[in-house]
Structures are given as structure tokens and as C-alpha cells.
Write a structure and sequence with these properties.
96 residues; single chain
Length: 96
């Protein structure tokens, strides 16, 4: 059985700003938003890779021209990778 003076994250339940339940929920909510956004962008990148691979691997009809991956598909994949890099890159430290 756990000690009732311990909160969910394992710290002592003292009346400090660190044990404020609203602050804890806010931090968890912000972390979950980042996780959802990164997962969504990752699914976009994987979808673009799969679709481009399907286009490249599909058979060319007789007398057809070379296969070209649409520029819009490349742009969507590039934008998703750039957004992931922007979100995951650490913020620069401010010097005061």
C-alpha cells in the first residue's frame, strides 16, 4: 500500500507550487499534445513514403512515360519532416 502523503508523480504532498494538481495536469496535457502532434506528423511521413514507393514500384504501361512522383506529395512529406524537426529541436537558451 502506498503512503497517502505521496502524490502520483512520487513527490511529497506538501503545500508547494510543485504539488499543485492543476499544474501537474497542465504539464501532462501539454506533453500529450506534443505526443499526438508528433505521432500525426510521423504517420504523414510514413504515408508519403509508402505512396511514393507504390508509385515507383507499380508497373509502367506499355508505351508509357517514366514514373514521376507528384511534387505535391514531396512537398507534403517535406513539410511534415520540417515540422517534426521544428517541434523536436530544443529551444535556444536565452542569455540575460
Amino acid at each position: 500500500m502506498t503512503d497517502p502523503t505521496q502524490i502520483a508523480i512520487g513527490g511529497p504532498a506538501t503545500p508547494t507550487s510543485d504539488s499543485d494538481p492543476i499544474k501537474i495536469l497542465k504539464i501532462k496535457f501539454e506533453a500529450s499534445i506534443y505526443l499526438v502532434v508528433i505521432a500525426f506528423l510521423g504517420m504523414i511521413v510514413l504515408s508519403v513514403i509508402i505512396i511514393a514507393g507504390y508509385i515507383v514500384m507499380s508497373p509502367v504501361p506499355t508505351g508509357g512515360s517514366a514514373k514521376v512522383i507528384p511534387e505535391g506529395l514531396i512537398a507534403i512529406g517535406s513539410a511534415a519532416v520540417g515540422a517534426m524537426a521544428g517541434i523536436l529541436a530544443p529551444s535556444p537558451a536565452t542569455k540575460t
